[in-house]
Amino acid sequence: MLTRSQVKSFISRYPDFRDEVLSIHYAPRMPKAMVKETQKIVALARKFNDEIARPLFLELDRKTHENPEFLPWDLVKKANEWGFYTMWMPKVFGGKGYNMPSIAYFSEEIGSVCLGIANVIGVHYLGVAGLMMAGNTRVIKKVMNDVVQGEKTGDPCLIALAITEPMAGTDVEEIELEDRGKITCHVRKVKGGYIVNGTKIFISMGRLSKWTVLYGYTNLKKSSENTVVMMVKQGMKGFTYGTHENKMGQRICTADVLNFEDCFVPDELVILDPERAKGFTKQKSRDVKMRHLDYVLSLSRPVVGSFGTSAARGAFEAALRFANEAEIDGKPMISYEWVQCRLAEMYSNVRLGRLAYAEANLANQHRGVYNILQMKPIYYYLKYLPLAFFNNVLSPLLTNRSIGTWLMSKWYLDGQKPEDQHLCTGLGSLAKFNGTDIGVKNCQIALELMGQTGMRHENGMEKILRDAKLLQIYEGTNQLNRINVFKSLIAPACPKAKIFEE
Amino acid sequence: MITALNKDLKPFEDLITEFAREELKPHVEKNDRYPYDSRDAEIIESNFRKIYDLGFLGIMLPEEYNGIGQGISALCMMLGHVAEVDASYSLIIFTSSLSQEVILAAGADKTAKKLFPQAKTAQDYFISFPSFTNPGQVVTLPQAAISGKDYKLTGNLDYLVLGNFTNWAVIPAKVSGKQGYSFFLVDLKDKAVRKSAPIFSLGLHACPIVDITFDGVNAQLLGEEGEGEKYFNKASKVLHVATAAISSGIMKGSLKEAMDYAKEREQGGWTIVNWSEVRMILANMTVKSKAVDMCVAGTCQGIEAGIPDWGVYSMAAAIHVHEMACEVVTDGIQVLGGNGYMKDYGQEKRYRDARQVQALLGLVPLRKLSLIREISA
Question: I need a labelling partner for A373 at 20 to 30 A (CA). Which of A327, A430, B69, B259 fits?
Fold first, then answer.
């Protein structure tokens, strides 16, 4: 009927069928052990929900209203005890090395009970991603070792990521806008390091994190080409915390202001420096920065999509409980067609949100930053090789200043084709705005079904509505993510299209 | 819009806008809090007394009962302007009107003449009511048993608006052996009434709501036994549009704050109002807000003119306006980004308040179904 070349020609025509339906292409390549591993993670999340999250989440939210300065140290310690802060760190850096996509399913489980608690755990991995995606193995090893030790000693060590500024939220997440934005966090090169001056705002878990990935700029007018990413530690001279932001929801996960006043950061804590990167890649500084941001956001946005899906699921489950218990005109509410149709719509939203972040995961797994880790032989080697191999062979190799940094930089800076980068960042954005929009949508349907019952804090539903709204804003507003979907996945079919140039 | 169509309301409008601007606006953030404490009683009492002194608690109550005797247009105009600043106080005014309408619908003329003209304080004048429910949809209402000339109520009633603060309440309860439910006037100061702490709710925090337990409290029947549904429907028929007016006010507040912010905040070197997607969001908010404004005003006119099926218009307007409001307040936060999510700005409060207002007078889907039942009957 069709020749092989004809098939290839039709398939690769825009939209390329191989990019449009990743599940049928990549699901067969998934190592079976990864499925079991993911099931184990989901089971663990459900156990945590039963024992910790569900009994605590309303009380914790109430405490943050009673005392806006309340800090969730006990919760963080519990999460630390359960091993959640090293769960998705690579084994070579001392972590447990669970497969990265499983964090999305984990987050959906925890978030379906409490989005705030999900973020208290999950946002640490935004910091981990920011650190990892700079490829500086020595610093990665040093910081992650602190996290591992924190788990052993019961003194949690979390990593935050600080990029948002008072006058620049969207601008600092989009390279095309950055140089036009009002960016103020200045870094100045001095002997042995950098001096930082500026303010970062809305930093999730900022004051509860021992380490922070900080984005500073040597030239505030041309920040896209002059970004320096560095690790700053609590207690550094000139690094202080400002206001504890008073948010509508996700209140248990703090949003902090970070102030830097002549704060000295030594060279050995700089993880991405445009000057030093020149030694490892031929890419321009701006492209290196964009690639770094794309990598981080390609990883984080599907997880935010899973948060959104979890909000949709939490709302669905609350409405389902209510419909199962309530009566209308002497009949169970659940027996009415109109109730069943609303519940079916909510359930469908949950499944569709999950499919969207699962596709974004597949892109990252097979075309993105950790594709090498998903190849069956490598996956199994990493999973079953004894720890001694990691500690005695891989770790020294990767933390060797020249070999390790070269390897990681090659892998991260030059290891992905532009079209794959577009696919990963585009699907990450798609999962993010889709999941978070359906999260708010399901809350709306649930509240309409529940009436005054849904308004009461003790029933949990109103909190999901408050929590869910933030998801449409952070990790890039949903408008920015829509534009990124256009830019990454649609614009190739639109030669005349210009982005951010109206 | 309402005043543009009815110039006679201008003096009332001037009064209410000045009150909202001078008395309510400075305290919005402070009043929107949890937990409640003794300060709440002071703040609420202070504003409550001012609302009472200005006559707003009896805006639709006929003059013979010591009210102002205005129509639904005046009430909606007032609710909208107050909600633009703080919808909590709109709930107070709305609930006052609702309980008065129920008393009048029950034909309890004697009760009304005794209650309102003799009231010396706001607490005496304001009658609490469970405004977030249609009593016919509640599975377990308090039970009423005949005791001499009066009745005694036992059982629980959830979510009584301002029940911790006022002296009287209109309570729906079931009379043993009778179909349907009935309304009773209850003295909330009675020792046989137990009140919960204010309920921690999604929005409208400056108007506390409590759960009530009756341990055989004396109650006075309003109207006839088992006719509660008839009275509620009559009262709510006109007041559905009043809930829409509250939502319309919230939308106006949201749109104004979004526009002001968009003209100041910069992104990518421009004020964000110049980015076409932001303009599109603002345009959508404007379309919804303006259309809703006209919808509320038109419905009020229709009701006052007594057009056929005015009750259907009232209910349909409310359902539609609430949906629009929930969309607008969500976009209202989005325009402000992270700032919109913080309590330093007004948008997050409107996001919560709009949903709480939508829950007035019972479940949304059941209101829709009752609408179609009325049309198809």
Answer: A430
Q: Given an 8 Å threshold on Cβ–Cβ distance, is B364 in contact with A170?
A: no
Question: Topology of A160-276 in CATH?
Answer: Butyryl-CoA Dehydrogenase, subunit A; domain 2 (2.40.110)
In what helix (H) or strand (E) does residue A258 lie, and over which residues does it extend?
strand A255-266
Note the pLDDT tens digit of each residue in A201-254. Answer: 999 999 999 999 999 999 999 988 999 999 999 999 999 999 889 999 999 999
B residues 162-221 near A, CB within 8 Å?
A: 199-203
CB contact under 8 A, A502 and B276: yes
> What's the complex ipTM?
0.96
The CATH code of domain B2-118 reads 1.10.540.10
The SS3 call for residue A232 is: strand
Q: Which long-range contacts (CB under 8 A, 24 or more apart) does A92-95 make?
A: A92/A390, A92/A394, A92/A395, A92/A398, A93/A140, A93/A141, A93/A144, A93/A145, A93/A395, A94/A141, A94/A144, A94/A145, A94/A147, A94/A148, A95/A144, A95/A147, A95/A148
User: A191 phi and psi, to 5 degrees?
Assistant: -60, 120
Domain B126-226 has CATH 3.60.20.10: no
What stretch of H or E contains B93? helix B72-105
What class does CATH assign to A25-156?
mainly alpha
For residue A412, name the pLDDT band (cuts at 50, 70, 90): low
Is the Cβ pair B338, A452 closer than 8 Å? no
Which residues in chain B are classed under CATH 2.40.110.10? Answer: 126-226
The C-alpha atoms of residue A77 and residue A109 are separated, in whole angstroms, by 19
